[in-house]
Amino acid sequence: MKGLVLDWGGVLTNGIDAAFASWAQRDGVIAEHLGLVLREAFSAEADRPNPVHALERGEIDATEFEHRLATELARQGSPVPAEGLLARMFAGISPSDSMLGLVARVKEAGLRTAVLSNSWGNDYPMQGWDELFDAVVISGEVGMRKPEPRIFQHVLSLIDLPASECVFVDDLPHNVTAAVQLGFVGIVHRTYDETAHELEAILDLPLR
Length: 208
What we know:
The structure is a single chain. The protein has two domains: 3-15 and 94-203, Rossmann fold; 16-89, DNA polymerase, domain 1 (Orthogonal Bundle). It has helices at residues 16-27, 31-41, 51-57, 62-76, 85-89, 97-108, 129-132, 139-142, 149-159, 173-181, 192-203, and strands at 3-6, 112-117, 135-138, 166-170, 185-188. The protein has a five-stranded parallel β-sheet, sandwiched between helices. The chain is 49% helix and 11% strand. α2 crosses α4. With 208 residues, the protein is an alpha/beta fold.
């Protein structure tokens, strides 16, 4: 293995679900209502792209998405202000020092490293990323999203490696499945300890 490609939110940060649950409590949103909107209301729009997918590809901007999400939440019975909705949702997301330290040790061992993230128009704390990552691919900036094969191929072209020589880490199993189908070795991230243990075995490196 010569490369390590990682998701950002939920892998190199704290958990997305916990952060969104904290936001829902602050904004008075019933958590089940958010799930219903993302699973059913948005995916049911057969005449237009799924708004989440469109946002991740950069086909709609954050303001439009916020208004559409706020409208659907209100229909479910959880009204929220549309303005600044995404910023409030992502306010509880913070980098994981332990996971970033793990990446630094992989980088020091001579492997190429990359971030591959589906963006919801959120900001990324990129200070120090030039030294830590050989490539950073944000879905909304390239017009592609996971699990589309082309975005995996794009990040591989940036680090100049074949999929067969790379490990891909994501907290969403369907993204890992898509990467494995292209030839990556895949890890579904759950905890730092589990991911560190799997990477140590795959890379044959002491990482903790």
